[in-house]
Amino acid sequence: MNPVPKVGHTQTISDVDVVVAMRTARQVFSDGILREAGTDQRDLRRRLTSDSVFQIAEFFFLLKCHGIETTQQVREFARLHNEYLTKAINSPEELERLERTRSQVDGAFFSEIGIDKLAENFLRNPPSFDQSDLCRFLVTQQSFENCRRSLKTLRDTGLLEETRIAYGSIVLHSRGNLEQVYQNHIETLRSRLLPQARANNHE
């Protein structure tokens, strides 16, 4: 596969360059998550490099990127999530694209009481999430079952910490390692693509 021909003075990055950059960045993520977890258990290491864990790390990273730091912001985030799911339910094409059934999406809505609970947990220091709420937010990317399994893996390896609250409930928070590993993934992708783009534009 050859690079796309020049148009004027601009040349796009080749498809091969993009694929190599994406693979390299994902490997940086996998290496980083395994290093942070520090486990030799084969099953845990396999699960830590799964798409599901990658998506959970991305979720925490994007919370930071969007500056979601207050209970009001997390409430609005949940309502926007509900609005998106409403649109998805009303579109068979969107449900098919997401590979979700209507009942799966129905179970991922936040009720008003659920939003109050979400905000109360987020008010903790550090901000925390109920496991089910994390699964709700991630429903468009993975099933509840996969999400729960991956959250357990992250808890078992210390990448997510848990706090027991009233009535034996557990909330989870990130220690910042997940966000940093994902940040390294982004920086690797950027560092491989931007110099290449600049070089191509000067040819």
Can you put this structure into words, describing what you see?
This protein has 203 residues and is mainly α. The protein has one domain (15-201). It has ten helices and three strands. It has helices spanning 15-37, 42-48, 51-65, 71-89, 92-98, 102-106, 112-122, 131-137, 144-156, 177-201, and strands at residues 129-130, 160-164, 170-174. The chain has a three-stranded antiparallel β-sheet. A hairpin with a 5-residue loop joins strand 2 (160-164) and strand 3. The longest helix is centred in the last third of the chain and has 25 residues, at 177-201. Mean pLDDT is 90; it is low at 1-10.
Describe this protein with a few key phrases:
three-stranded antiparallel sheet; disordered N terminus; 65% helix; 203 residues; mainly alpha
Write the layout of secondary structure elements.
Layout: H1 15-37, H2 42-48, H3 51-65, H4 71-89, H5 92-98, H6 102-106, H7 112-122, E1 129-130, H8 131-137, H9 144-156, E2 160-164, E3 170-174, H10 177-201
Antiparallel strand pairs: 1-3, 2-3
What is this structure, in a nutshell?
By secondary structure, the chain is mainly alpha-helical.
